[in-house]
Design goal:
6 strands; alpha+beta; 2 helices; 138 residues
């Protein structure tokens, strides 16, 4: 799929929308289910960082995205998060279930101690402790 570059007017509208929503969210407003009705739905998502930055974002399976349709996506950086939604630099998303977490990596085995052969004294002690088994000691 080849992506179309957004026009300057589309970029300006995206920036205005983001600034408006940042102001609303900073004032304590939160989106209602009606506000989020047309927002894309992201399921099996996980927290990550936006490529080549330290900004938080999500990746997961999205449906209803206005430009991408239904596919696996990395969102743009997150600017706000609430119960069941996130606002990224581009738009609101409704949140589904997070991706299952993988089992943690097992602890590495401790390094084996190198083999050291027993000393002559240790061998004598071991042999002296063995039973006679009927040896004739005349």
């Amino acid at each position: 799929m080849r992506f179309r570059r957004p026009s300057l007017a589309e970029i300006a509208e995206r920036n205005r929308s983001r600034a408006r929503d940042e102001d609303l969210l900073a004032s304590g407003w939160t989106p209602t289910p009606a506000d989020l009705a047309d927002a894309p739905f992201i399921d099996q998502w996980e927290d990550t960082t936006y490529p080549r930055t330290d900004k938080p974002c999500l990746r997961g399976n999205v449906t209803g995205h206005p430009r991408l349709g239904s596919t696996y996506v990395w969102t743009s950086p997150i600017i706000a998060r609430g119960d069941g939604w996130v606002r990224t630099e581009g738009r609101f998303y409704r949140l589904g279930e997070p991706a299952p977490t993988l089992a943690p990596e097992p602890e590495p085995e401790p390094e084996a101690v190198p083999y050291t052969p027993p000393s002559d004294e240790e061998i004598d002690d071991l042999l002296n402790g063995l039973p006679d088994y009927g040896l004739d000691r005349r």
